[in-house]
Design brief:
By secondary structure, this protein is mainly beta. Strands 13, 15, 16, 18, 19 and 21 form a six-stranded mixed beta sheet that branches. Strands 23, 25, 26, 28, 29 and 31 form a six-stranded mixed beta sheet that branches.
Length: 794
C-alpha cells in the first residue's frame, strides 16, 4: 500500500496513491500533532525480508525539523525514512515501552522524503497510528523552556512588529560548532521583505534564516551599528511558507538574554535591555534631501530641522543613479563634527567612520563597486548624536585605480567574546574570523575582492576551512607551502564554501577568502578548525572496535600437507591489532587443532553477537584453499565452489556468505590468504558494508612468503597496513581506499614475479584481488590509537 503525505509549513494532508485501499485515510487532513490510522495486512507491499509496509511521502525543506512517531498494540513498530541523496534514518524503539518507533529529524535538503511504516519481524500485521509534527524533540524541549521559566521559551512563533525575548542557556539545541541556538518561526509571503533584529547584551549575537525556496541567510553584525555586536538581517521571501530563524551566538558556549524582533520592511526603534546600540543607518523614511551626480561635490549642513536617526544623529540623504560595475570614491569631510558616511542600494550596504589613511583626520571615505543598476542612497551624518555644522560631500569616480585610501583588511578573531584584530592575516587552527570584503580590498586578476589569511600546519592534520556569507557567493582558495592550490566554491548548501583536507606537509598555508563573482562585497565568517572528515568518517569511533576471528593452520595432521608460518600469521595479526589498541577483547584466535569447522562456526556466533553497528568485523584466514566442481551458475560461472581448508573439514564460499549475513556491523572485512580465495568475492561481497581482500584470483594458487617468514604475502602486508603503514595521508585513520592502495603497491613491488597455477596446471602469476563492494574509498576501516579519537566502550 502506498500513501502520500504533503507538507507545507508543517501543515500535513494525505492524498491517495493507486494502491491505497482506505478512502478514509485519503480524505483525512492533519495538523501538527495530528495522526493517521493505518493497517498492515496481507496484500500490502512487502520488504525483501517479508515485512508488510505502508509508504508515505512528505515534501520537506532543508533545515526543517520533523518528528515521526509510530505506535501499535498489535506488533513491534519499525520506521524508515529515505530522502534526497543518501539520506536514511531507521528506528525500531522510540524509548518509551520498547515496541513503538519514533524519529526526530532535521531534514538536510529540499525534496521528497519517504516514510515507511512497517514491523520489526516479517509477516506481522495489525493496526497502527502514525503521527507527524514539524518539530523534533530538541525543539519541543526548547518550547517548554527547559525549566528556565517563561522568559526563556527557547523559541516560538514571531509576529511582525512584535518583539520577543529569550535566553541562550545550557539545554538549548547546539549547532555543530558548539553554539547554543533558539529556533523561531515566521510566516512570510513571497516577494515581501522582512528585517530580523537580534539584540543581546550578554553575547555576540548571530542570526541564521532558512526558508522555503532555498532561502539561506546568515548575519553576524548589524551593518548600521559601529562596533556593536548585535545582529540585523534583511531578506526577501522567495516563496510563501514558514521561515525558521535561529537566534544564536558568534562563538561556542555563549549564553545570556536577548531580544528578537521581526518586521515587514525596516527596523523598529530599539526597546531591549543591555547595551544601547549605536546609530542605525536605514533607508530614509521620506523623500531624499537631494540628488548627487557622479563627479559632483555638494556643500551642506547638519542641524535643527533635519531628520534624525533613532540614536539622535542628524542625517542628510542624497540619491545617486548608478550602473552595475561603477567604482565610486565617496568622501565626507567637516571641520564642525566627526563625519560618518553610508551607502545603501540594490545589493549594497556599506559605511565608514574614519579614512584609515588620512593621518589622524576624522574625515570619512568609502570605496565601493556598485553591484547592480539602480538608485543608491548616500547618507551624510555624524558619529555622535546631535552634532551640527557644515560638511562637504563628494561622489568621485574611482576608475579602477589603486586608491591611497584603500581600507586595510577588515577582519578579527573572536576569542571568548573579545574581538582581536588579525595582525597581518595570521591565524591559528581553531580560530573563527569575522570580516568583510569591501571595495578597495586587494583583488584577483578576475576582479574578485580578497582577504588573505595564513596558518601553520603539520602533516597529518585534517582541517576544514569554511567560509559563510549571506552577502555573496563564498569561495576559498588554499595554497600549500609547496605551491599546490586547492579551491572550493560551494559547500553543502550551495552558496557557502567548505574545503576539508588532510595537510600533506609541514609549513605555512595561505587561504584566500573571496567571492565567486567579481566585485561582490559584504561581511563573512571564516574558520579553519580541526576536522573529523565527512559525516561518515566522523561517526567512526576509535579504540577497541575491531571484532576479529583470526584463523591460521600450519599443522593439518592427515587432512593436507603442512604449511610453514600460516598459524603465526593469525597470531601476529592479533598481536599487531592488540598493540595498536584497536582489537576488542572478544576477538578469537584459532590455530591448528583449534581451527575446526565447528570452532569457526561457534566463533562467528559468539563474536557477531557482541559486535554492533559502530564496530568493524574481521575474519582472517591463512592456510590451504581448495576447489570442487559444481553446477555452473551466475554465482559460480566457472562451475567450481571455492573453500578454505580447516583442520577437520572445509567452509565453502556459500557457507561463508551465510555466516557474514548474520553480521550487524559498520564494516565487515573478509581476508583470505589461501589458494583460489578470489572466488569468495562473488558470494560474500554482495551486500552493503562488506569488503574482501584475497591473495589470489579464484582459479590460481597462492604462495608462501618465505622471504618475509610469513605464511602468505597478503598476511604480511595486511599487518603493516593496519598498524599504520596504510594511513597514506597520516591523519590517523586507515580508509578502505588507503588500505587497498597500500596492498596493491606492495604486491607490485614484492609479488610481481611470483608464479601461480590452476588446478589443471596452467601457469600464471599470483595477483591480489580486492573487492570493496559498497564500501566507499573514504570509509574508515579503523582508527589508529594515535588519532586521538575516543575509544568508547563495548
Amino acid at each position: 500500500m502506498r500513501n502520500v503525505l504533503f507538507s507545507t509549513a508543517l501543515s500535513l494532508s494525505l492524498a491517495a496513491a493507486p494502491l491505497l485501499t482506505g478512502p478514509a485515510i485519503a480524505q483525512q487532513r492533519l495538523q501538527p500533532g495530528g495522526s493517521v490510522q493505518g493497517d498492515l495486512s496481507r496484500g500490502d507491499d512487502q520488504l525483501d525480508s517479508g515485512e508488510f509496509v505502508d509508504v508515505y511521502e512528505v515534501q520537506g525543506r532543508a533545515g526543517q525539523p520533523l518528528s515521526v512517531v509510530m505506535r501499535s498494540d498489535d506488533f513491534d513498530a519499525y520506521l524508515m525514512v529515505r530522502g534526497p541523496g543518501d539520506f536514511e534514518e531507521d528506528n525500531d524503539d522510540s524509548g518509551d515501552d520498547g515496541t513503538n518507533a519514533g524519529l526526530d529529524l532535521r531534514l538536510p535538503a529540499d525534496g521528497t522524503y519517504r516514510i515507511t511504516a512497517t514491523s520489526y519481524e516479517p509477516g506481522e500485521s495489525g493496526r497502527y497510528t502514525l503521527s507527524m509534527s514539524g518539530a523534533g524533540a530538541g525543539a519541543r524541549a526548547q518550547a517548554t523552556g527547559g525549566g528556565r521559566g517563561p522568559q526563556n521559551a527557547g523559541g516560538g512563533m514571531l509576529q511582525p512588529g512584535r518583539g520577543a525575548s529569550g535566553a541562550l542557556a545550557q539545554g538549548d539545541r547546539r549547532l555543530e560548532a558548539g553554539e547554543f541556538a533558539d529556533d523561531w518561526e515566521l510566516q512570510v509571503r513571497r516577494g515581501e521583505t522582512y528585517t530580523v533584529s537580534l539584540d543581546a547584551g550578554d553575547f555576540d549575537a548571530y542570526l541564521m534564516v532558512r526558508g522555503p525556496g532555498g532561502l539561506s541567510e546568515d548575519n553576524d553584525d548589524d551593518p548600521g551599528q559601529r562596533g556593536g555586536r548585535n545582529s540585523r538581517l534583511t531578506f526577501t521571501a522567495v516563496a510563501d511558507g514558514t521561515v525558521e530563524i535561529s537566534a544564536t551566538s558568534f562563538g561556542p558556549d555563549e549564553t545570556g538574554r536577548y531580544q528578537i524582533l521581526a518586521e515587514q520592511g525596516g527596523r523598529a526603534p530599539y526597546a531591549g535591555g543591555g547595551r544601547q546600540p549605536q546609530p542605525t543607518y536605514q533607508p530614509p523614511s521620506r523623500q531624499a534631501d537631494g540628488v548627487i551626480q557622479l563627479g559632483q561635490t555638494i556643500n551642506g549642513a547638519l542641524g535643527q530641522g533635519d531628520r534624525q536617526l533613532n540614536s539622535g544623529e542628524y542625517i542628510n540623504t542624497y540619491t545617486l543613479r548608478g550602473r552595475r560595475g561603477q567604482q565610486l570614491d565617496l568622501r565626507l569631510s567637516s571641520q564642525a563634527f566627526d563625519p560618518y558616511i553610508a551607502i545603501e542600494g540594490p545589493g549594497l550596504s556599506e559605511f565608514n567612520d574614519d579614512d584609515p589613511d588620512a593621518d589622524g583626520s576624522r574625515d570619512s571615505r568609502l570605496f565601493v563597486t556598485l553591484p547592480q543598476d539602480g538608485d543608491y542612497q548616500i547618507t551624510a551624518t555624524s558619529y555622535e548624536a546631535g552634532e551640527q555644522g557644515s560638511y562637504r560631500l563628494a561622489a568621485l569616480p574611482a576608475d579602477g585605480r589603486a586608491s591611497q585610501g584603500r581600507p586595510r583588511q577588515d577582519s578579527y578573531v573572536d576569542d571568548r567574546g573579545q574581538r582581536q584584530d588579525v595582525e597581518g592575516g595570521s591565524i591559528s587552527i581553531g580560530d573563527t574570523v569575522g570580516g568583510a570584503l569591501q571595495s578597495g580590498d586587494e583583488q584577483l586578476d578576475s576582479g574578485e575582492y580578497v582577504d588573505t589569511f595564513t596558518f601553520t600546519g603539520r602533516r597529518g592534520q585534517r582541517v576544514a576551512a569554511e567560509l559563510t556569507s549571506s552577502a555573496f557567493d563564498a569561495y576559498i582558495i588554499l595554497t600549500t607551502p609547496s605551491g599546490e592550490q586547492l579551491d572550493n566554491d560551494d559547500g553543502e548548501d550551495g552558496t557557502n564554501s567548505r574545503l576539508d583536507t588532510v595537510i600533506q606537509e609541514d609549513g605555512e598555508y595561505q587561504v584566500m577568502v573571496t567571492s565567486y563573482a567579481a566585485g561582490e562585497t559584504g561581511s563573512y565568517r571564516f574558520s579553519v578548525v580541526p576536522s573529523q572528515g565527512s559525516p561518515r568518517q566522523a561517526s567512526v569511533q576509535g579504540g577497541p572496535r575491531v571484532f576479529a576471528i583470526m584463523v591460521g593452520v600450519s599443522d593439518y595432521g592427515d587432512v593436507a600437507n603442512d604449511l610453514p608460518y600460516t598459524d603465526e600469521d593469525a597470531e601476529k595479526l592479533a598481536e599487531t591489532l592488540q598493540r595498536g589498541g584497536v582489537l576488542n577483547p572478544s576477538s578469537v584466535v584459532l590455530t591448528n587443532a583449534e581451527a575446526t569447522v565447528g570452532g569457526v562456526r561457534r566463533a562467528f556466533q559468539e563474536v557477531s553477537r557482541q559486535a554492533g553497528p559502530d564496530d568493524m568485523f574481521l575474519f582472517f584466514f591463512s592456510g590451504h584453499g581448495s576447489q570442487e566442481d559444481t553446477q555452473a551458475s551466475a554465482v559460480e560461472p566457472d562451475g567450481r565452489t571455492e573453500s578454505i581448508v580447516l583442520r577437520d573439514g572445509e567452509i565453502t564460499d556459500q557457507e561463508m556468505a551465510q555466516l557474514f549475513d548474520g553480521l550487524n556491523t559498520r564494516l565487515s572485512l573478509l581476508v583470505l590468504d589461501s589458494c583460489f580465495s578470489g572466488g569468495f568475492a562473488r558470494n560474500v561481497v554482495d551486500r552493503p558494508g562488506v569488503m574482501g581482500l584475497f591473495s589470489s584470483e579464484e582459479d590460481l594458487t597462492s604462495a608462501v612468503a618465505d622471504k618475509f617468514e610469513a605464511g602468505g604475502y597478503l598476511s604480511h602486508f595486511l599487518r603493516a597496513g593496519l598498524a599504520g603503514a596504510g594511513d597514506g595521508d597520516g591523519d590517523g585513520a586507515v580508509t578502505a581506499g588507503e588500505l587497498a592502495t597500500y596492498l596493491r603497491r606492495q604486491f607490485v613491488a614484492e609479488v610481481d614475479n611470483v608464479e601461480a597455477e590452476t588446478m589443471e596446471g596452467q601457469r600464471n602469476y599470483q595477483n591480489l584481488v580486492i573487492d570493496r563492494g559498497g564500501v566507499q574509498v573514504d570509509d574508515v576501516v579503523l582508527r589508529l590509537a594515535s588519532s586521538g579519537y575516543s575509544s568508547g566502550s563495548h
